Amino acid sequence: MQVAIDGPASAGKSTVAKIVAKKLSFIYIDTGAMYRACTVIAKRHGLDYGDEVAILRAVRQDGIEFKTGDGEQKVYSAGEDISLEIRTPEISAHVSQVSALKSIREEMVEMQRKMSGEMNVIMDGRDIGTTVLPNAEVKIFLVASARSRAQRRLLDFKQRGIETTQTVDEIEADIAARDYKDSHRAISPLKKAADAIEIDTTEMTIEQVVERILSEIEKKL
């Protein structure tokens, strides 16, 4: 079974996808982390975030891997754990630009489809239900107000130990800007699939969102 969970930044996709995958013993694939890893690779190589050819070359050179450690999924590149670095404000500010590059998206989508293979998977991102897994049995589209997403992101920074001087207002402005970039890019824009179930998580707890998604999946099992 393939389950696609899409939605804008900080709508809670990764958090609930991990929990749902664990409850069902499905494989979880965080596609957003893959594009963030590409952005980290570009930064570490000192590349312009719009240099498509050079970034693709660096990504193929360094590679991107998911490994499980301490009970959670870790992201590695060039043999180094970059799980914290991919969540920093600088990477968040530039990942939309990198993820909009055609060859980068093609490379990542190919990797994502290979990962899905013959296993039961839950994959989250922005174009999973429309582009990566268009035939997924269950498609979920999570939404939430920009303010609530900014508050969640600031809390996430604190929980991960990521230092930031940004205020909630500044983070909200960044999220709104990313929403615009993601939904207006030429290649695989952020878009709700026609057959996706929309869930507004603004006033919902994580547990409530998880239960709602589980109920939709159980209808297909």
UniProtKB/TrEMBL annotation:
Catalytic class of the enzyme: transferase
Biological-process GO terms, alphabetical: nucleobase-containing small molecule interconversion; pyrimidine nucleotide metabolic process
Entry GO CC: cytosol
Chief localization: cytoplasm
Chain positions recorded as ATP binding sites: 7-15
Reactions catalysed: dCMP + ATP = dCDP + ADP; CMP + ATP = CDP + ADP
EC numbers, comma separated: 2.7.4.25
Subcellular location(s) per record: Cytoplasm
Keywords: ATP-binding, Cytoplasm, Kinase, Nucleotide-binding, Transferase
Classification via Pfam families: Cytidylate_kin (PF02224)
GO MF annotations, alphabetized: ATP binding; CMP kinase activity; dCMP kinase activity
Gene3D superfamilies: P-loop containing nucleotide triphosphate hydrolases
Domain Cytidylate kinase: residue ranges: 3-218
Similarity comment: Belongs to the cytidylate kinase family. Type 1 subfamily.
The protein's name in its UniProt record: Cytidylate kinase
Organism: Lactobacillus pasteurii DSM 23907 = CRBIP 24.76
Lineage: Bacteria, Bacillati, Bacillota, Bacilli, Lactobacillales
GN (gene name): cmk
